[in-house]
Amino acid sequence: MSFLSGGQQQRVFLIRALISDPELLILDEPTSALDPSFREKFYHLLDDLHTRNKTTIIHVTHDLTDAVKDDCKIMYIDQRIKFFGLYKDFEEFEHRGHHHA
Hints:
The structure is a single chain. This protein has a two-stranded parallel sheet with strand order 1-2. A two-stranded antiparallel ribbon has the order 3-4. Helices cover about 45% and strands about 20% of the residues. The model has no long low-confidence stretch (mean pLDDT about 80). It has four helices and four strands. The longest helix is centred in the middle third of the chain and has 18 residues, at about 35-55. Helix 2 (about 35-55) links the parallel strand 1 (about 25-30) and strand 2 (about 55-60).
């Protein structure tokens, strides 16, 4: 795999993880090396996995813009847990000035 680019290697790792039809999927910055068009397809795939297969997905990211939907639970950590709940509630928490990126 050393002849593949970083983004191509990332895709191979993701595909290998997904083909085993896992009950739990833990992802740490899975889209960091992916181009925007593939990133969108990837998030649709995750949504499909969660909806159809009931796969639990733990997704570590610094970028919430692409990754979450209103019904997703998120945990915001800054030295300690500052928020845990639905993303739509986090938006309110964020607007009250509790979060700064």
